[in-house]
Structure formats: C-alpha cells, structure tokens
Amino acid sequence: MRIVVVAPSRHPLGQPHPGGLEAAVWDRVAHLRRRGHHVQLVAAEGSDFLRNSPAAFRLPPTRWPAGSSSDTDYPPGYLELAQDALDRALHHLSRRSEEVDVVENHSLHALPLRWAPRLGIPVVTTLHTPPIEDMVEAIHAAGTALGPVLAVSSHTARSWLERGVHARVLPNAVDAARWQFGPGGPDLVWFGRIVPEKGPDVAIRAARLLGRRLVLAGRVGDVEYAERAIRPHLGDDVVHLGSLHQRDLARLVGSSACALVTPMWDEPFGLVLAEALCTGTPVAAFDRGGVSEVVAGSPGARLVAPGDVEALAAAVAAIEGPSSEVRRRIREHATRRFSLERQLDAVEAIHRTAMVTDPSWETAVSA
User: Fold this and answer.
1) Same fold for the domain at 2-173+340-361 and the one at 188-337?
2) In the chain, what are the helix, strand and coil shares in percent, each to the nearest 5?
3) What is the dihedral of CA 312, 219, 153, 140, to 10 degrees?
4) What is the CATH number of domain 2-173+340-361?
5) Could you report how far apart the first and last alpha carbons of the chain are, in Å?
6) Nearest Cα to Cα of residue 275 among 325, 213, 330, 198
7) Where are the domains of the chain?
8) Which pLDDT does position 361 carry in this prediction?
9) Which stretches are annotated as coiled coil (predicted)?
C-alpha cells in the first residue's frame, strides 16, 4: 500500500524517543516499511524517514530557548507556523490523491480531521490522548465523511465516547526484538517524560521508603517541575540519566529489579508498562486510566490506589526480584499481548477496508 503517516508535530520522530506517542508512531512507520509498504511521513524537520517524502511534508522543528522546553506549550509563534505548514502539506496531498491509498493520522491537531472529507483519500485516525476540544469538534463536523477512528485503549475510547466520538480499540504494541529479555538487577527504575502528570517525584518517595536506589530515565518536559521536584533529590540513591536511545533504555529496564509507574493523571495507555514487562521486569503501578488494561493477567504486575505511596512501596517489595523463570513468563505474556506483528496485521486489514469503503471519495467527487 501507499501510505502517508501524519505524525505528531511537537517533536521530531527519532532516537531518543521524546515520549511514548512518538515511539509508537516511529515503530509503525519502520515496520510498515519493513513489510514492503511505501510509507511517506508528514512530520517535523529532523525526523527519521523523511528522505522519501516530499519537501511539502516537512514541518518546522520546535526550537526552544535554552532551558524552557514544555510538553504543554509551544515556543512563541510556533503553533501558527506548524499549523500553516501542516495545512500546506494536506493541500499538497489533496492534489496528489491518486498517488496515495490511505492516510494514517496520529496528529494532535484538528487540521487532518477537517481535511479528511475533502482529501479524496481514506483517513484512519488514532486517538492517543484524552479528548482534545478542537479534534472533537472537527470529528463531529466531518460526520459520516470521516474514515475509521481508533483508540489506543478502552479507557481512551470511553473518554472520547463521552464526547460523542466512537472509536474502535487498537492497543499500542511493542517491538519485542528491541525490548529484549533482561536479567534483572538490584535497582528500581522509572522511565518516561519528566512531567508532573507522570509522577517521578512520587517514585522517588516510594524508593526512599524502601531504602532503595532509583534510576530515572527520560526527557525533561517541564523544566520548572524538574528543578523543583526532581533535581534537589538527585544523589547517590536517585540518579537521572536523561534521554536514552531505545537500545540503552531497554538494557537499563531489563537489568532492574522493578519498574515504578506512577501516573498522576488518567493514562491513555501507558506504553512504559508494556515495554518493561517485555524485558521481564515486573511493574508496580498506580491504577489510573488505561493502566489496568495494559497489565491485565500479567504475572509481573501489582496495581495500587492512585497516589498511595506506601502501598506502591509495599507492591514493589512484594513483586521485585523474581527468578529468571518467572521473568521469562512475564516476558512471554507481554510479548503475546503486545505483539507488533499482530497489530500490523490489524492495521493492514483496517487500511484495506477503508480503501474500499472510504466515504470521502464520494464527498470529493461530488465537490
């Protein structure tokens, strides 16, 4: 198939991955290409996979003043530039609709949804976040002319359904070949974006209740929060390694005793859970959002009430340090549930169905 993937535009797609959303889309593009599909990318300049894409598909990169990056805001004036560039990319795509079979939309902007009824190409949209008002309005405005809508978890699907948006659940997946089995080790690990809603400060408190060393890995997405809540606690017993290449991150997680997952918001999916379990490393986590779906049935997971630090520490003590045999069972269960190959089979089937039934063809022709 000839596929155009519209990526989230806040960060380039590449290593080290800035977050789970970007990691999931990166894997999708890489493996669709590996399966022989012709995949082009609409993404921020500096992304991997742009070599075979038209220049019009290259969006401006986010350029932050030193020490001021954010996962909730943009540099002054950037959002307008990015949206203008995305609008031009979609206009370029609409003029070459006969060259593309399907569009995969992973953007957090409403523009691809607004363009969908007039592109003349089926658009398959994946919802990765809680409802975003502009996107909700655009989906309702598109009506029956919009292509398939997917959600990364049942929790995410329900949250959008409350806003009248119906989505089929297609969970995220993990490339088990890249998240390989690990031997475990003495330290606890926390990995993800360093932002308040991910709660790394809570993980620090739990590790200290246990008297255990904690290794943090991840990009700082909220500088003020990191300076206030994380930096003062760094030392021999709390280490922050920053952003790691996926290979190095998998090695770190696989050589840890237990992964702490501490969402302070309703997690849409929680890719770090699946990644840790694929290495055989057990997880202790707050039960928020889609977390319970991800760990369901795993022999290597303990969930506790959100925000209960003492319960989290007790869960770590109960589950950490399993034998090599148990770690292998943890991995086997995770790799079955989060098989990337099985997800791609489903994606291909959805795309082929959309190509046959896409309602935007009729809209485009009548226009």
Assistant:
1) yes
2) 45, 15, 40
3) 130
4) 3.40.50.2000
5) 26
6) 330
7) 2-173+340-361, 188-337
8) 41
9) none
Joined together, the tokens standing for residue 106 give 């992973």
Question: In one letter, which amino acid is 59?
Answer: L
CB atoms within 10 A of CB 238: 21
- Residue given tokens 């990169």 in the structure block: 61
- pTM exceeding 0.85: yes
* Nearest to 106, CA basis, from 47, 175, 54: 47
137 and 303 Cβ atoms separated by less than 8 Å: no
For tokens 């655009």, what's the residue?
A: 138
- Residue 47 contacts by C-beta under 8 Å, 6 or more apart in sequence? 7, 12, 13, 14, 41
Q: Is 303 helix (H, G, I), strand (E, B) or coil?
A: strand
In terms of CATH, what superfamily is 188-337?
Glycogen Phosphorylase B; (3.40.50.2000)
Binning pLDDT at 50, 70 and 90, where does residue 367 land? very low
Indicate whether 34 pLDDT > 80.
yes
Q: Cβ of 355: how many Cβ atoms within 10 Å?
A: 16
Tokens 């300049």: give the residue.
45
